[in-house]
């Protein structure tokens, strides 16, 4: 891959070649050593131009192939991942008093979450490295996305999920033919067991906090936002945070575009967690190292008490001049209702946590009502209908009688 120069450790800055089996820094060892993919931006600009991308008819993440760490000739799944819609919902903007609000609905991906962007890179890299099985731990969305991409690629998947994972996500895993391991413990327990099993069986590791190539798939959401706004970067991009990999990917995407000369400025990044599980928000606001937290939130996809990519996440927010905020589960349910009723967009709890945080940042005056803001909805509400019903309540129940209907509708419409 002429566009990839190698990998760089975010801790010690050591650079190593991009080779099969190399994921973490060999120098940092047990201390961590999470890596970043580094690119030759001159080579990227030789391979393509901004105008060529704008005119591309490939409505997937592969319109940005020169920005990705895969061989151009490698086999790819047939699934259409990426190029999700960027809406400017007037109703939600009016409700929040904003004149320039956009919603990026990544629940429109094949398995209904942003995680498809990472998983499709994982299965391509697995086949490139001749690995017959891919594996990961997940609170749900990464799991279903990996299972779907693996099925489309014709390889096996083994998925570890905590016992609290919603049934909608478990159903996806089983439908896609994955071997599903429900770990009777926390996400930390789940991650640890998956890591031990991956080492024992030699499966390809899809865990985004270990595998540096997965963030490269996630960053394509930022590339799309920039292109869909005619390469005019928003003032703010806001999204939910769990492990920290997605927010790191968003920042990496904008940094890559800036380094290649495709955009002339960078956005501020705002990360949002639930007050029931906010280790990174607390660390950011108190300017201290993060500490583990309980996983006590309805937003299962971001219920990560021991984040595996904290440094990249915190670096993204700090380097961008952005901020972080925590919101209650009730605020998350309220955001589900408001987003649905004012824009017709159905997000799961973790998917709308960014929008819930936006309301808080507006109230505090940190984000201005006239600033251009993109809030990313990271997952579809059909993944967690139990909490959707909790947000909106039960339907009106009537006997097949117009008289009774009129009584029960009084004052409601």
From TrEMBL:
The keyword Ion transport is annotated on this UniProt entry: no
InterPro entries: Ser/Thr_Dehydratase (IPR050147), Thr_synthase-like (IPR004450), Thr_Synthase_bac/arc (IPR026260), TrpB-like_PALP (IPR001926), TrpB-like_PALP_sf (IPR036052)
The protein's Enzyme Commission number: 4.2.3.1
Modified residues (N6-(pyridoxal phosphate)lysine): 115
Binding site for pyridoxal 5'-phosphate: 141, 378
Superkingdom to which the source organism belongs: Bacteria
Keyword set includes Transmembrane helix: no
Pathway annotation from the record: Amino-acid biosynthesis; L-threonine biosynthesis; L-threonine from L-aspartate: step 5/5
SUPFAM superfamilies: Tryptophan synthase beta subunit-like PLP-dependent enzymes
Key words of the record: Amino-acid biosynthesis, Lyase, Pyridoxal phosphate, Threonine biosynthesis
Gene Ontology terms describing biological process: isoleucine biosynthetic process; L-serine catabolic process; L-threonine catabolic process; threonine biosynthetic process
Pfam family for this entry, one: PALP
Reaction(s) this enzyme catalyzes, per UniProt: O-phospho-L-homoserine + H2O = L-threonine + phosphate
GO molecular function: L-serine ammonia-lyase activity; threonine deaminase activity; threonine synthase activity
CDD domains, sorted: Thr-synth_1
Domain Tryptophan synthase beta chain-like PALP intervals: 81-379
Cofactor(s) needed: pyridoxal 5'-phosphate
Family: Belongs to the threonine synthase family.
Function: Catalyzes the gamma-elimination of phosphate from L-phosphohomoserine and the beta-addition of water to produce L-threonine.
This protein's name: Threonine synthase
Organism expressing this protein natively: Desulfosporosinus fructosivorans
């Amino acid at each position: 891959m002429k566009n990839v120069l190698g990998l760089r450790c975010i801790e010690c800055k050591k650079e190593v070649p991009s080779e099969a089996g190399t994921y973490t820094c060999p120098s940092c060892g047990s201390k961590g050593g999470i890596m970043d993919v580094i690119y030759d931006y001159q080579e990227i600009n030789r391979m393509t131009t901004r105008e060529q991308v704008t005119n591309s008819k490939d409505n997937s993440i592969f319109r940005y192939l020169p920005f990705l760490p895969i061989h151009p000739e490698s086999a790819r799944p047939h699934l259409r991942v990426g190029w999700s819609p960027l809406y400017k919902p007037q109703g939600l903007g009016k409700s929040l008093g904003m004149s320039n609000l956009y919603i990026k609905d990544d629940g429109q991906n094949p398995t209904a979450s942003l995680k498809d962007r990472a998983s499709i890179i994982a299965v391509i890299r697995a086949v490139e490295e001749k690995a017959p099985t891919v594996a990961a731990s997940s609170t749900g969305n990464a799991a279903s996305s990996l299972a779907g991409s693996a099925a489309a690629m014709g390889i096996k998947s083994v998925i570890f999920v905590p016992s609290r994972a919603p049934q909608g996500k478990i159903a996806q895993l089983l439908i896609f033919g994955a071997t599903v391991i429900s770990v009777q413990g926390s996400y930390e327990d789940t991650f640890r067991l998956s890591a031990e099993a991956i080492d024992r069986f030699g499966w390809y590791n899809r865990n985004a906090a270990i595998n540096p190539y997965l963030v490269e798939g996630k960053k394509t959401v930022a590339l799309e936002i920039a292109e869909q706004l005619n390469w005019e970067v928003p003032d703010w991009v806001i999204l939910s945070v769990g492990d920290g990999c997605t927010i790191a990917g968003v920042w990496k995407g904008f940094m890559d575009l800036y380094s290649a000369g495709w955009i002339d400025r960078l956005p501020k990044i705002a990360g949002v967690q639930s007050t029931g599980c906010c280790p990174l928000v607390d660390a950011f606001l108190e300017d201290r190292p993060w500490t583990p937290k309980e996983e006590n939130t309805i937003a299962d996809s971001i219920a990560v008490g021991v984040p595996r990519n904290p440094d990249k996440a915190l670096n993204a927010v700090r380097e961008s001049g952005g901020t972080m905020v925590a919101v209650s589960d009730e605020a998350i349910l309220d955001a589900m209702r408001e987003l649905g009723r004012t824009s017709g967009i159905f997000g799961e709890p973790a998917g709308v946590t960014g929008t819930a945080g936006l309301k808080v940042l507006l109230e505090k005056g940190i984000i201005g009502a006239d600033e251009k803001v993109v809030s990313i909805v990271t997952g579809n509400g059909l993944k967690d209908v139990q909490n959707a019903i909790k947000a909106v309540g039960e339907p009106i129940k009537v006997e097949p009688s117009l008289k009774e209907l009129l009584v029960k509708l009084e004052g409601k419409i």
